[in-house]
Every structure is written in C-alpha cells, then in structure tokens.
Amino acid sequence: MDKPQRGYWCECWTEDLTDGTGWRALRASFDAYSAPQADRWVAIALRTISPALDPDASQEAWEWLYDGRIATRRALLRAESCTVTVTQASTRITWTIRPVIFLPLAHRQGNELPSCTQDFKPHTAPQAPHVPD
Nearest to residue 26, comparing CAs of 72, 89, 95? Predict the structure, then answer.
C-alpha cells in the first residue's frame, strides 16, 4: 500500500453492566478494506458465540444476522459508522465499524535508515544445554 486507502476500522468491546462505572474492555480489532469484509467480521463473531448465548442474546444476534446485517452493509456503503450490540446476562458486547482512511507506512529501506542502524547486531538467545537421554 503506497497511498492512502479507504477502509473500515472494526472493534469489539465488552462492558460489565453491574459495576456501574461504564468501564469497557477492547476485546478485538480488525482492519477491513471493504464493507462486505467489515460486516463479515461481525457476522462470523456472532455465529461463533451464538450457541453459548442465553436465548434472548442469541435472538438479538440472529436478528442482526438475518435483518440488521443488510442495513449495516448499506450504511457502510454510505460511509456511515455502525454498531451491533448483544447483551448476555450482565455483559454488553458491542461491535463498532467506522469508515477510515488507512495511511501507508514509511518504507524501511536500508538507504533511508539512519547510519546508526548499521551498528546494530541482532542478539541471539542462548542455546539450552544438551541433556543426554
């Protein structure tokens, strides 16, 4: 990738609804380069966890998979952010998908690096002593 590229930044967060602090934990993130790839990431996660969810949460998951996914895909194609949420007991699981522009990383060619990088010698881990059988 040598120039900025449009895509989607996807995250999965969990929140404990019983502690009252609003503290959330990032569980996973994913960089998608198309709307289908972004909503597929959420769909795979929901299909994977749905057997372990309680009946209400499982129903939420499958409602999005059957109906909500179409609306999500359309919104993504309009470059709108989307959120999918499932509540399991006292845990809220939220997937977010946001349109982004991915910037290319700088090339790391030897002639572009500072001269001090030539002084670096990789450290090799010591070998474990051989134990006879």
Answer: 95
pLDDT band at 30 (very low <50, low <70, confident <90, very high): very high
Cross-strand bridge partners of residue 2: none
pLDDT band at 69 (very low <50, low <70, confident <90, very high): very high
Tokens of 32: 């998608």
Helices 69-77 and 35-49: crossing angle in degrees, nearest 10, is 160
Tell me the three state secondary structure of residue 130.
Answer: coil
Q: Does residue 74 have a pLDDT over 80? A: yes
Least confident range of 5-9, 27-31, 39-43, 119-123: 119-123
Q: How far apart are CA 44 and CA 133, in angstroms?
A: 47
Region of residue 22 (phi > 0: left; psi between -120 and 50: alpha; otherwise: beta): left
Average pLDDT of every residue of the chain: 85
In sequence order, the 6+-apart residues with CB closer than 8 A to the CB of 39 are 69, 72, 73, 76, 82, 97
For residue 64, give both structure tokens: 């999005």
